[in-house]
Amino acid sequence: MVSQADLLLRILLPALVCVLFCALASRTAEGVARRLVQALACALPYLLIAGCVPLLMPQRSATDLVPLFVLLCVVLATALKPRGLLWRTTPVVLAAGFLVSLFSRLGAPPAWSVRALSMLAFAAAWAAARSGDRERPAWRLPLVLGTAAGAIAFACICGRVASLALIAAGIGACCGASFLVSLRWPKLSFGAPGSDVALLALGGTLACAVFLGELSPYAALALLAALAVSSLSSFPRAFGAQLALTALAVWLAWPADGFVT
Amino acid sequence: MKLKLLLLAPVFALPLAFRSPTPAAAPLRASASAAGWKIDPVHSTVLFKIKHVGTSYTLGRFNGISGALEYDPASFGSSKITVEIDPSTVDTNCKPREDHLRSPDFFSVKEFPKISFASTKVEGSADKFTLTGDLTLHGVTKSIHFSAEKVGESDIKEMGGPRVGFFAQTTIKRSDFGMKNMLEGASDEVGLTLALELTH
Fold first, then answer.
1. Residue A149, by phi and psi: left (phi above 0), alpha (psi -120 to 50) or beta?
2. What is the distance, to the nearest Å, from the Cα of residue B164 to the centroid of all Cα atoms in its chain?
3. How would DSSP label each residue in A171-197?
4. Separation in Å, CA A85 to CA A38, A231, B179
5. Tally of CB atoms within 10 A around A215
6. Angstrom distance (rounded) from CA B48 to CA A260
7. Which value does ipTM take for this structure?
8. Which of B108, B115, B136, B141 would you mutate first to test chain A, the one with the most A CBs within 10 A?
9. Which of A172, B60, B120, B146 could form a disulfide with A149 if both were Cys (CB 3.0 to 4.6 A apart)?
């Protein structure tokens, strides 16, 4: 059940904040300051959607880990220059850090092979999705992320985790708004720092849906593959493959006994 | 004729042999020490009651219960009880709803596989008392108060010896325990009922 307040505060307002910060970033001088504002263009809406300020509240559940890592991602996306070695290894470091923290909180953690595969898949999809940033038009990454977020939201509903579905839908709304605006004004895209934050937030949401909820891990792998194929240089091929993998993920995630609650 | 009656007598007597022993309240044996009481999960129930869309109460139960009691009728105030509940055994007579209750939206059972209550204070007499203790739910521990009563006690050899029963009720706010999802559809206030039978 999504109330009108949820729709306003966790979907529309975050999308508006995202666009405003993208506009602010376009007017900021290139460098650390711009990267910070671009990262915040995704991070602040995410914190609004997640409904918490993680530094001010006691950490209670594993889903509260994602905002903490998102803030860490903001710092790294801001401080590290693109093309540097540290910048390139960020997905590996943050994906591993987040998943290790998540696994340590589970009553019965999965087997080591599952943990290793999860970290590898998460980091590989993230690294692939950001690999061709400079060559692609500004609207492509928001479109890829928005599509992935919509699919993750639907998969979370299939996995019976409405709270995570709402978070993914909120991120999707932000990416969708950024995509629409950047079609007309390419400078208003949130760029690499914003996409890094959105990728971590989406990956974290997906990991929570799998390891805390009932989402099929195969569906999650298909969704990560859908993110990874966005690195294909041809847009029709990349987007077509993404849609096909997304459809496969939804089919895999579909609950056998329907959606009755 | 007499022979037939003699032959049929065991047949009529058979159902009597399977009748439950008379549940007359027998005083506990003096040998029943304070320690060593355990919850009998077959005769104990943990219920919860929550308002659905402001319209009606939905009831559910947890089928996995365990726990122990330190109970001495002579010094009732010093009694202590611990109850452990496995939230993955939630039962609401609707499997999809139970799956949802196990998810991070509610109990998040993979992260918090145990709900526990440990009493800290007992005030009042056995007939009616207030049971104070720490409830750990969804990873958050808070002190709560139950209104409780001792229902009865018995010492029936055929049922394994001394037994004592308690009934306790309270209302908590689930948001106090970090369970804040879907407050519009399922109320914040949740009624909890413990109907416990303990064996020695």
1. alpha
2. 12
3. HHHHHHHHHHHHHH-GGGS-HHHHHHH
4. 21, 19, 41
5. 29
6. 21
7. 0.83
8. B108
9. A172
Q: What is the least distance, in Å, from the CA of A107 to any CA of chain B?
A: 5
pLDDT averaged over every residue in chain A: 88
CA B23 from centroid of its chain's CA atoms: 19
Sorted by where each begins, the domain ranges of chain B are 34-199
What is the count of residue pairs from A and B with beta carbons less than 8 Å apart?
Answer: 71
Domain range spanning residue A192? 4-253
Q: With residue B90 as reference, give the H or E element that holds it.
A: strand B90-91
Domain at B34-199, CATH homologous superfamily = Lipid/polyisoprenoid-binding, YceI-like (2.40.128.110)
CA distances from A135 to A34, A124, A130 (A): 19, 19, 11
Closest chain B C-alpha to A205 CA, distance in angstroms = 11
- Residue A104 phi/psi, 5° resolution? -70, -15
Q: Within a domain: residue A9?
A: yes
Tokens matching residue A73: 């991602």
What integer pLDDT is reported at residue B9 of this predicted model? 46
Specify the number of domains making up chain A. 1
> pLDDT tens digit string along A75-122?
988 888 877 888 889 999 999 999 999 999 998 999 999 999 999 999
Tokens of B68: 């122990």
How confident is the model over B2-25, as pLDDT tens digits?
Answer: 444 444 444 444 343 333 444 444
Q: Is residue A109 in a domain?
A: yes
